[in-house]
Structure formats: structure tokens, C-alpha cells
Amino acid sequence: MNKLNIKRPFFMFNPKSYLYGKELLELAIEADKQAEKYPEMSIFVTAPFADIEMISKSTHNIIVTSQHMDGIIPGRGMGHILPESLYNAGARATFLNHAEQPLKLNEIISSIQRANDLGIITVLCADSIVEAKALAMLKPDIILCEPTELIGTGKTSNASYVEKTNSAIREVDKNILIMQAAGISTPEDVYNIIKMKADGTGCTSGITNAVNPKEMLVNMIEAAYEAFNND
Amino acid sequence: MNKLNIKRPFFMFNPKSYLYGKELLELAIEADKQAEKYPEMSIFVTAPFADIEMISKSTHNIIVTSQHMDGIIPGRGMGHILPESLYNAGARATFLNHAEQPLKLNEIISSIQRANDLGIITVLCADSIVEAKALAMLKPDIILCEPTELIGTGKTSNASYVEKTNSAIREVDKNILIMQAAGISTPEDVYNIIKMKADGTGCTSGITNAVNPKEMLVNMIEAAYEAFNND
Amino acid sequence: MNKLNIKRPFFMFNPKSYLYGKELLELAIEADKQAEKYPEMSIFVTAPFADIEMISKSTHNIIVTSQHMDGIIPGRGMGHILPESLYNAGARATFLNHAEQPLKLNEIISSIQRANDLGIITVLCADSIVEAKALAMLKPDIILCEPTELIGTGKTSNASYVEKTNSAIREVDKNILIMQAAGISTPEDVYNIIKMKADGTGCTSGITNAVNPKEMLVNMIEAAYEAFNND
Amino acid sequence: MNKLNIKRPFFMFNPKSYLYGKELLELAIEADKQAEKYPEMSIFVTAPFADIEMISKSTHNIIVTSQHMDGIIPGRGMGHILPESLYNAGARATFLNHAEQPLKLNEIISSIQRANDLGIITVLCADSIVEAKALAMLKPDIILCEPTELIGTGKTSNASYVEKTNSAIREVDKNILIMQAAGISTPEDVYNIIKMKADGTGCTSGITNAVNPKEMLVNMIEAAYEAFNND
């Protein structure tokens, strides 16, 4: 099935399990406005599984994204994340192999296969360059390069790391988009990482813990846009 | 928080990952009608995580039930099943430790704790008598006794197994309700198992694979009612 | 099969994966001398799987103990820990469900079953009182009560925690021996915990990181003996 | 550290958890004789963890191989497979990611790293061509291509599958040796698979379940030698 087109730069608001329900919805609606304002960008918003439908129903421009997806087909699979259920609820992208839920290699492969069957964009997480290169052989749509040790620290990857992962992945498969998001916590971080030639970036606690999360979200998206489009 | 009251006999329609979206919704609405017709019974319907909100919004009498729940609190937990998200979407019960997703003992304990915090009924699965006894120490609301080897075979537990598990569990904690559901595939099976003194029962493929699933669902609920209320 | 008799107080030297080969062997031989000196006590020494045979061949009085064991029978099971291989190499006891390797409840049950088949003493780890009570239903030989948050901190469980776990477990099954080992780092800690009515205790980094590990091991065993036998 | 040199063709006798103790030792000694007879070949023999030392001590020519290894360093790691312990016991190769113990991608990476640190040959298992290609990016020494569905069936991979996996892996990294072993159950199977340009092959139940396991082992090794060296 066809997947949604991913436009550059893309921005991923990933509130993980920090938010759900009304609080999440309000930020998703704000992200949706920004996605309408910047049609040249793709804005992704992740949601807990049981929030996906609510977010999808109330938004039109963002790409609603699942935090995980199992490589199963309809049938038994009690307690696992059914791809058809996610798609039907409105998810059009999914994370896989996040550092908080590392997967077996054969699970990554079967989940990518099911995502491709249904037209779901795959965002694979790598916490080292060698992992990024192995994942690149699986032809995901996006690889997120995030050294585990930087998650949640507020420290971003430096230019050398970004360049090294970019070139390592593009050497394997130049069609894969590259997301760099380690430690992004300010609009300046967003601006800098896009200037370093990431195709996209994103943020979790830099937004959810901000004094004004909505404003931070808006400013980060704007920073990504500016970095990509202005010299 | 207060949990919903569980009335006896209860019936659990557990379509696992066989159904999602519209097809699941139609059967859930039928179950809801039956729950209205038999207010002396509790009718549970499970749904994939991303279908919970849709099912909850369209029903009023059934207990919408999650297939699993992680024992996490709002925060990181990327890819895990957030209790608050489930509750907010309308889930008021959850399975734990199903044979298709066996859990670590410390995970079972933390999930029960979070379910109790939020007012979510816990349905713990045991595939042997000794496992049922250990789980009974954790004070769940319901224990489902289902010898793994019988799942999906169409063979039901016999009277001796039912009696043994009932007495083993009640010896540990007589407040726990006991569900017997191994191999239930016809209304007669439902009738017999309730007559054997199960507090409740349920079915998956006996309904989803029936020529007329809606009729099978209705007949099974009726059989449970009859077995419990008539001599 | 018959298991070795467990004498009280028992002491468990558990070097985890800190030691292997020659360094481990030297301490195991010292423990063996102490076990000969105090025949009224049981001295357990754990070893990495591939060190079990070497330790067993060079000792005669200690109970050589595995760090884990899978509940499998001879056959496929590639990469899993075969009970028959452990027994044949000389292991006569095994840990299960340690905080560094928590197990699924059904795995704990099958491992205990296999240990009982072969005559291997089972040491189950619980990191909370409710977990200890659930584990007690499985009739292990020893339960180790070790609140996860104290491991490696040098803080020991206080008298109230010890008393509570002791009485919780004995209420379920008074035949189970109780090991309390959280934060044990000096001979005084050993003395005190045995005086608090633990059946046994043990130590990891308090010995392996001591200036003189051999002396520390000897002093701890002596302290356990003194606490149990003298007023 | 330097690894042992792998000579072609190689033969892997992998009795998994079917054998341990004396029965395993006898076959390992026979394999050792064959390894002496055919110095141009490498003969690997796997053993359960607790049997590795015994096998190593009694053999001189085979490469004693572990069924698995965790990517840990000496320290806590209770219940995990310590690389230093394996090496010290005599293991000079290890399987990783076998279909009976599939690993997380980050675990595979850390285990390979530790194996390279110590000079342990890595044998990575792939059950599909795409998995083989991803694993090839990790620079293991050997990749075993074994479509999961053929394991234990007695059906071997056909020439087209062998050719496809060989070329897929060599395109990524031509230094990796390729083992094809799916369904090998007779000396003829061994002969044919080596003629199809596998660098090595191996067998489990074809040997352990043979009327005369020792004879079967000898004949298979001979068949590998003949296929590689004669036209």
C-alpha cells in the first residue's frame, strides 16, 4: 500500500507515555495547525495506542504515529499490537526498536514487512553507528540515530557524530531519511541539527516539560523550517 | 479507585487480534444489547488497544477490556501500554499473563498495582493449578484457568479439573472470581461450565469463526444466564 | 531425587559474574575449608555456568550453585541452561528469578519442577513481600528476600522488613527457609541479620570488593555461625 | 585478541541440549580424532555451558563452541553468560541469535563486540535473506543461513536458496564465511551442500538420532572433505 509522502524537514513530537487524553489532544491540535501552516514539512505526533483514534479523528495534517507495532497478522496474538488495528485507528507511521523497547532482529523484520503491507511509515531507532548500518539493510523509511547514553540528558549529538551516521547510512541506502534527535531541548538545538543536514528531528521532554509546551512546540517547528529553508 | 462491580455469571467475549474496526464494533454493540437485556450478568468485551476508545464510545453496558497493560506510570515508557491511556479511552478491565503473552512475576505485580490505583478489573490467566495458586496470592479480581494445551482445541476442561482449580484458588482467597474458558466452542459448553460452578466463562474463535458470530454470541450469553439461574 | 540437606544457618557466597576461573576457584576452596570447619552450617558458592565443573571437582563440602536454570528437558533448547548439564557438572542448587534476571511466572514453575526432578535445591528471589508470598506457593527450598532498591547499596533490610517477610512467608509455608541478604557488606551485618531470625544470608560485592576477600569470606561465615549458636 | 583460523570446509557438530556429560564427551572425542585426521578442515563442536570445560580438557583439535554468549563484562550480570568464563573454560567460538534463542539487535552487537575482544569466533544465525544481509553489516566470522521453517524437518535448502544467500551476504562483506545447514541429515546432504559452495555445514539430530551417531559424524565429516577437495 502507498505510504504518505515524507517532506523535509520533518519534525516528530514524541510525547511517549508522558501525555494522554485531553492534554495530548491539545498539543496534537496545535501541531496540526503548524502542519497546515508549513505544508512543505511533515509533522509527526506519536500517541499511546489507545489515544491514536482520538488524535486521528481531531487532526488532518499531522502524521499520527504509533510508539510500536508487532509483526503479527489478524488472529490470536493476545496482548500484542495489531497493525490493522493501528491503521484503522488512523496511524500512518510507527516507531520500532526504540531504546526503551529494543526488539529482536526477527521482530524488526516482521514488523517492517507488515508496515509495508499496510502503508505505514517505519521509524527505526539505532543507538550506535553499527546498529544504524544493520538497520539500513532493512530499508526502513526513517532511521533515528540516538546514542542511548544521550537520551533525556539535554546533550545533543555533535556535528561529527551526525556527519558520521549520515554518511554511514547513506552509504548503505541513500533513500533512507535520517532523523537526529538526541538531547534536543530548545529551538536552537532544532535549528542546529537541521543545519547539520539531518532530514528531520524531534523532541519529547523538551516540549512536555516546558513552561509553555505549546509555545515550545511551535517554536521548534518554526526553527526546523527556518534552518532548512534559509541560508 | 472503585472498580465496576462484577456480577455472576459473567461472560467474556475475547476476540483477541482476530477482529478490529467495524467488524469488532458490530459484535461489541450486540454484546452491549445483551448486557442491557441481562442486567444481572457482567459482559466483558476485549479489544485491541487502538480499538478501545471506539468500542467504549459506542457501548454503555459492557465492560470494555484491554488485552494487556504494563505496570508503568506516565513518563518515558515508549512502546509500552500506559494504564492511564487505557482508562481514559474507556477500559475498565484488563487481561494479564495470557498464555500468548506470559509475563514476568514482577511485571504481573506492578500491573495489578496500577490497575488497583485506577479502578481497573484484573483478569489473570493461569495455565496450571500451581500457577493459579501463586496468582491468587496477588489478589486479582478474576483468575482464568486455562490449561495451555487446550487453547483453541475445542476441548473443554473436565469437571474434575474445574473442581480442582476452583477449590485450589478458593482455599487461598475466596473473594477471587473464577473463569473457566478452555475450549469453549458451543452454547452447551458454556452451559456446562457454568453448571460446574465457574463464576464466568468466555470464548474467542467459537464466536469469531462461527457461521453467524452474532447469533453464537447471543446464544452463549443466554446459555450462561440459563445455567446460572435455572435448575 | 533427593536434595542435599540444608543446615542452618546457611551462608551463600554469590560472586555473580564478578569472578571466574582461578580467582573464583581460590575463594571457593577457602569456602570449602570453612564448610569443613563448620559442618553444622551449609555453605553455598555460586559460579558462572562454565565454571561449575571446575569448582565442583576441587571442592567437597560446599554446595555448588548455579546462577539460573531453564525449565527445559534434553532436546533442542539451543542457548538455554540445561538442568541435566548443570547437575552432571556438580551443581546441587540454583538461583531463580534474581533481580538481574527476572523470570516469567510459568518459567519459574517449570524450572522448579525440573530442579525437583533432579534433586537441585531452589533459591527463589523476591523483591517485595507480595512477590515472596506468591513464590512461597511454589514450594521452593529457599526464598531470598531482597528489596531491589537495596541491592549493591550497602544498606541492609531493617528488622521490621525482615520480620514482616519472615512471617509472610511462614504463614504460607513454614518449611521454606528464608534468606535475607540485602546490602550485607560486613561480618556485623551478617551477625545482625542472623540474629533477626533469617535462616541464612549471603554476600557478593562485600566480599569480591574487599581488600582481602578471603578474610572477609571467612569472617562472614564465622559471624553467621556465632550469631546462630551463641547467645 | 586473535581468533583461531577457520579452515574450509568446516563442519559443525551442534548437539544443542540433546547431549551432555559422558555421551557428549565420547562424540566430541571422535570429532577430535577426525579433526586430527583432516587438518585442512575446521571441526566445531558445541556444548551446553556447563560441559564446555570438560570437553575442552579432553580434546585438542576441535573448536569448542558455546551455544550463546551475553555481551556483558565481569560484574553483576547474575544468570547471564559471561564471555570471560566461556573463554577460560576453553570456548573459542559461539553461536548467537539461533532460531531457538533470537536476540535483540543491540544484544547481538554487544555480544559480537565482546567476542572480538576475547578472540571468540562468532557464528550468527539468520532465518531469511534480509536478516542475513543485516547481520552481515556486523562483520561476524560466520553466518548460518537456516530458514526457520526447515529446522528439524530433514529438508535441506535447495541450490537456488543457497546461491541467493551466498551472493546476498558476499555482496555486503565477502570475508564472512557462509554455513548452510538447514535439514542436513545424511552424508549425501553434507556432500551436496558443500558442492553448492557453502563454506561449511553442520548437523544436530541427524547425528544424535542416528542408529550409530559416531559413524554418522565420521561419515559426514568425510563427505564434507570429499565434496570440497575432489572434483
UniProtKB/TrEMBL annotation, chains A, B, C, D:
This is Triose-phosphate isomerase. Keywords: Isomerase. It comes from Aerococcus agrisoli. The keyword Nucleotide-binding does not apply. It holds the Pfam family TIM. It is an enzyme of class 5 (isomerase). Its EC number is 5.3.1.1. Transmembrane segments: none annotated. It comes from the Bacteria. One of its GO terms (molecular function) is triose-phosphate isomerase activity. The keyword Isomerase applies.
